[in-house]
Amino acid sequence: MPAKPKSIVYIRPDTIGDLVLFSSAVAPLLAEWPDARHTLVVRPAYAELAPLFPRKLGWKRVPINPFAQKPSECRAERAALLAELDALAPDLIVAPTLNRTWLEIAVAAHFRGVRSVVLGSRSVDPIFETALRLELGIDAGAAFGETVPVADGVRDVDAQHRLVEHLLGKSMPAALPSVEIPAAAAKQARGLLAERRLETRDWAAVFPGGLANVQVKAWPAERFAELVAWLEGDLKIPTLLLAHEDEKVVVEGVADAVQRRLGRRPAIWLGREGEIPLLAALLAEARFYVGHDTGAMHLAGAAGRPVAGIFGGGHWPRFRPAARQAVSIIQPMPCFGCNWDCHFVDGPCVKTLTTANVRLGVEHLLSHEAEAFDRVIEARNLSDETLRLVAASAPRYARLQADRIDRQHKIEELKNEANIKDDEIALLKGETDFKDGEIASLKEETDLKDGEIASLKEETNIKDGEIAALKKETDAKDAEIAALKKETDFKDGEIGSLKKETDAKDAEIAALKGESDTKDAEIDALKRVCNEREALIVKLDGHIKEFQAIVAEKDIHIANLDRDRAAAAARVKVAEEAAETATTARTKVEAVLQEDVSTRNHKVGDYVTAALTREIKDVNGQVIFPRGTETQLRITELQPHGGLITAVVGRRLKLRLGTPDQLPLKLAVVERVMRRITRPQRAEVAYIDVSAPGRPAYGLRSPLPSS
After folding, report:
1. What gap in Å lies between CA 153 and CA 253, rounded to an integer?
2. What is the rounded distance in angstroms from the CA atom of residue 231 to the CA atom of residue 223?
């Protein structure tokens, strides 16, 4: 059993019918892997199908048509897609289409190491295979890790079922394609039908369009007109012609032909971009579908309606309708499987089908509306000789086509190589142009430098003239300086003489100043000594005055100490007398405390017993403690503790009396408490606490149920 993936990417760049058939695979995969992220990669136009699929399925639009574009023609789009898929971190890549394109292979090759599964072993178009190898360096045959084999002639819906079983690693019940019609689209469809006077399940959906991708499989418009005239004229079944607005000419041609036959035009609906959900809603309201093998046919079947499809041999029987009630009308020919590369250009396998052949299919639908069926109606409109001729020419045409493809393959290789060379030449030419530009720029810069040099040279010559003039002026200045120097030397001699004389005077002044400084120092020293003597005299005078004050204070303190000593002696005597008195009192207290406790308790017990032998009545006059024998109400035990007394009356009632004082008051409080106790509680009284007469309390042995 494969591990459950967390992020799955399905690559489906094909069209409406393929995606509708794929719904049969989406449903079981979503159910088996509900916690995984499921992402479907489609072309933008086909993302319109999203409202018809489960909301859990994510849709990623990619603006690439790998059936028409080469990898080199959409490099930016391919890079953007791969970056977006990288963000999804897929751990499973699935290519569920039998018609392989380079896009699935490029994605699978990008995610090497990730589980990748491809449906069928068909090879990609040789032209695209060459492009993959030359442009992306990818080997198309090695891109996918797992291949689900599909034999020729298997219906696409059955191939999808095999893919599901392979992915899940177990057998699964087969399922038909199914779409969910949005409520808004259903409402809009009913409104459009009402405008055309068509009632639900009472009209036929006729589809002469749907040939945008394969024009060769068109059934003639005149025969569509015959079919509509038969439905409306003979069977009285209203019809609605449906197609895309781009196919208006085809639909109008059918309508005009019907008018010529019946004298009236059938109803028409032409869809626009973004209206695939509305088309599905309209088809779901039809009685049945008849028309080309198109996406609309598969939509009708997935919406639960019977379908009659007009088929050619291009892909037969791969796209036979997968519906509960289905009829396929076909003209067998030896050239079937041509992939719509028709040997005869105009698709005789479709053009030779008559209105009578299609009427047989419609009649079968109408005659078996309650049954499930999948019928193939084979027309025999071609002679045996014609079929033999086709059979003989088909292989030769196939060989010619193969040879043409091989030649085209080679041409594409050569063209690709030429493109590579052209790119290299363009690159080299670009580099050369860039170098030429650099050279021109350098030459221009050199010319500019030459101009600057000439300008600088001219400026230098001017400077040289200025320098020569300055040199002459400098020589004159030098002569003047020499004359001034001689004069200065003479002045220097005079100054030297004056300086010597000045130095002698300075020395004499310095000697006198030194002697004066010495005298000043001696005077300052004598002045300091005098100041110190004067300060000492003042200080000593202050000390004498302080000492006299201290002596006076000492005398006063001694007198106070004498008084305090006498008072202390008196207090000691009083304390001794008090101590003697306290000793005597303690002795008396100890004697009192030594009184016989048992005797005192006995007295208390007798008092309480005597008090309790009286009748105590409650508030209703009922006797609480009836008069009895002395032993019944007698205190059976006294429990003194820390000066507090608890009296046990009889076998169970405890009276907490506290200290042995105020006994009459405490027993009176006991009576009041007993009167307030209800009859059911009396037998359960455990204690009465009157140690504080003002705040009595009592307790029960067990709580009684509330009444």
Report:
1. 35
2. 12
Domain count, the chain: 3
In a domain, 632, yes or no: yes
Residue 454 burial (CB < 10 Å; 0-12/13-18/19+)? exposed
Q: Which distant-in-sequence residues (6+ apart) come within 8 Å of 563 by Cβ?
A: none
CA 106 to chain centre: 29
Residues 329 and 202 in one domain: yes
Burial class for 404, CB neighbours closer than 10 Å (0-12, 13-18, 19+): exposed
List alpha helices for 264-378, DSSP H: 276-284, 295-302, 348-351, 355-367
231 and 85 inside one domain = no
* Confidence grade of residue 254 (pLDDT, cut at 50, 70, 90): very high
Confidence of residue 367 (pLDDT cuts 50, 70, 90): very high
226 and 116, same domain (yes or no): no
- Tell me which range, 253-257, 495-499, 531-535, is most confidently predicted by mean pLDDT: 253-257
The residues, any chain, with a CB within 8 Å of residue 351's CB and separated by 6 or more, are: 219, 220
Q: What is the CATH number of the domain that holds 73?
A: 3.40.50.2000
The torsion defined by the Cα of 600, 603, 609 and 610, in degrees rounded to 10, comes to: -150
Residue 680 lies in a domain: yes
* Sign, Cα dihedral of 296, 300, 301, 303: positive
Give the span between the Cα atoms of 52 and 16, in whole angstroms. 12
How far is the first Cα of the chain from the last one, in angstroms, to the nearest whole number?
69
Contact 394, 334 (CB under 8 A): yes
The verdict on residue 423 lying in a domain is no
**Claim to verify: residue 163 and residue 238 sit in the same structural domain:** no
Section 142-155 average pLDDT: 92
pLDDT band of residue 576 (cuts 50, 70, 90) is low
Segment (H or E) for 251: helix 248-262
Domain region containing 623: 597-700
Q: What percent of the chain has pLDDT over 70?
A: 83
141 Cβ partners below 8 Å, 6+ apart?
123
Residue linked to tokens 């018609």: 99
C-beta neighbour count of 393 within 10 angstroms? 14
How high does pLDDT run on average in the chain?
84
- CA–CA gap between residue 171 and residue 161 (Å, rounded): 9
Asked if 144 contacts 9 with a C-beta cutoff of 8 angstroms, the reply is: no
Helix, strand or coil, per DSSP, at residue 705: coil
Predicted pLDDT at 591: 46
- Domain membership of residue 579 (yes or no) is no
Listed residue (364, 319, 284, 274) closest to 51, CA to CA: 274
Q: Cα(244)–Cα(211) distance, rounded to whole angstroms?
A: 10
The crossing angle, in degrees rounded to 10, of helices 156-168 and 16-32 is: 30
